[in-house]
Amino acid sequence: MTATLPGPCVPPCPWCQARRWYEHGLRWPTAGPCSRAPLSLLTGVRFDVLDLPVDAGFAVLRRVGRTGPVTLDGRARRLRFLVAAGSADELPGLLDWLEWGGVALDLTALGAGGRIVAPLPRSAGDRAGRGHQGALGAGRAVWVRPPEPGCEVEPTLPVTGLGGEGGAPDLVRLVSAAATECHRARLLRAGQARTRRPTGDQPLAFSYASRMSAGTRPRSLTL
């Protein structure tokens, strides 16, 4: 009688491990057709997302000690702060109330119907093979402040004062810091761009011709 030996134990792919971790460990809904496509987390169900440039995002982390989980999308160079579900609808009103309405901040929010790239759990990412570059390649999303497995995420998420529990982070404070740092980062990037511009290359926005075409003649010509 010939004995049948078991085949070699093949570990599950990192994509499958990540999906299991999110759906069973955290009970977060995910999306993604197969292991060759990046796994996504659906927003607007357990949480919404505050999305801002990476330089502004890290400045916010230095200012605000308590936030919810935070992800870094290296490919998009964006930091994403998980906030209470429904916060995306509140963002425009909060920015108006904080007197940031109408200012170009590059600060957005994702709510119902949105999705973000799912950061790979550390254990899955450490064992990532070279054949999974679609989900685990260079620039993949990572956790900057990870969620706690086995714990409900909602009590840790920033929320407005009327809807939160006693220990929840304050959404208004987070949005205020995010708007300030987005504006500061935008000004710094503009200043660096001017510094790199060759001497004598005057920006059109400040040239005499552009001011004439816009109907804003120099004061010396209107006296």
Automatic annotation (TrEMBL):
The name this protein goes by in its record: Proline-rich protein
Upper taxonomic lineage: Bacteria, Bacillati, Actinomycetota, Actinomycetes, Kitasatosporales
Alphabetical list of InterPro entries matching this protein: SCO3374-like (IPR047919)
NCBIfam families referenced in this protein's UniProt entry, alphabetically: SCO3374_fam
Domain of life of the source: Bacteria
